[in-house]
DNA sequence: AATGATTGATGTGTTACTCGCATGAATGTT
DNA sequence: AACATTCATGCGAGTAACACATCAATCATT
């Protein structure tokens, strides 16, 4: 049934204006072209919709039935198209990313500053989540891309490394281990160790890294987030192994950082996105800026 | 916004089948032609709807939003087109006319018989109504055309006369007036006269016809329909002036008919239709058959 | 890792369709 | 009867949509 939207528009406008000539003018068509459109619609339907002479136009019974339906169809289409374009525009005016907390404050501030300076009207929405949640968010297209750990990846996403860093010891300045320049993992055996839960990507990496050495630290405290670990260390409740980027970078009144060796456990943080994902230009640009600023050479 | 229905169909089918090639085959298009349609839709909306590689097709976020809307639009259009065609087909399979009662049984039986023999599947629907209702029915397109009186016409309808006939006296066989071969209107003055209401077309014609003679019958009974008049005459309650076609055509055990003169009041019954009205072929044919069978030479 | 089958995208030429212009016939109005 | 205006038709021009040929990309298989 080869009906076209322009046919419906011609019919609706003609029925409303009661004039082929006037309707044609309104929709920027010549009168013969409009007449042909109406004739084509009537031929396709197999029934006249309008009764007309050179001086008078009226709807047929079928035309009267069809007119509100045609109007509704055209209205619904216009609404749909406008809605879709609004969604698209809203999406293209916003960057959505998911990020593990330890990386958010390390990677993003500089790049966000530069990005917002270049694109003042583009908003950046950061979903702060664990490594697995970041991955799910990307897979489910809830966000454009993510910043997460190597271990938490998936065959259906592409990983682009940004930074590789070691886990280090975090303890209070007045802790006995703070007197050593370098701490070995086995040195921790005699101290209360604060760890993160099994669901954490960091925990997975640590477990895998330590498996080779035969040493298994005895966890005394288990928390959900690394940032809570740091809080407990500061409170003097124990020591923790934390990624370097989550530690204070300079001298700290309470917290000391020491290299953890034998083994040195490394983690890689990078960008994950779905291959072939068509990001908005803004998201593509932000993604590029992150790579440019942070990519490991 | 130059979106076309074929664009929507291409998009919906491709999203459902997850294959350009397969979708193209289904809607009888080549794969490049379908690809171009999808590209045109995406260009018009200014946003991609599908992410695709040569081996994998998925909806974008905007595409996922748009797909149910596009489906609904196409479904609504198809429903509308089928409904319109069904109405048109039903109308073209049926003749609808309105007819004053006195004429229905006089004009229609023969023509209906001939018509139904020629067109066995076409149904004929007769709306039995007063002269004014017949006219309204035609003007409001509730019926295709009507059979009514001259007096009940309108500048917007065309009248084609079928039969011109006189009003005659109807009385019981044993009534004194039955003894006269011809009755004059003034003879009715001494007898109870049964008339029809002022809303009746017949009443209007009678009033106008008698106005010239100066004689005004004194109504003793007033009824709504002529057929009721005949019933009261038969019951011996009085006499009535009725159109010839509504009287028994041969000898009747109870009812006598006599010419009414001085004046002779005539009425014309004919077809009314809207000029330029596009009737279905069946209605046109029936209309023609009525004219052929009954038209006054 | 190499190879092959398959698919979406692009270039190109052809065809069909839509358009505007010119004009005719019909229709109300004066 | 004459005139102005409108809908319908004939016709030529231009454009859009199509299929075909082909390329590049992508997975699956070996």
From TrEMBL, chains A, B:
Recorded family membership: Belongs to the LysR transcriptional regulatory family.
Protein name (Swiss-Prot/TrEMBL): LysR family transcriptional regulator
Domain HTH lysR-type: 3-60
Keywords: DNA-binding, Transcription, Transcription regulation
Xref: PANTHER family: HTH-TYPE TRANSCRIPTIONAL REGULATOR YBHD, NITROGEN ASSIMILATION TRANSCRIPTIONAL ACTIVATOR-RELATED
A single GO molecular function term of this UniProt record: DNA-binding transcription factor activity
InterPro entries xref list: HTH-type_LysR_regulators, LysR_HTH_N, LysR_subst-bd, WH-like_DNA-bd_sf, WH_DNA-bd_sf
Cellular component terms per the entry's GO annotation: cytosol
Annotated SUPFAM superfamilies: Periplasmic binding protein-like II, Winged helix' DNA-binding domain
Domain of life: Bacteria
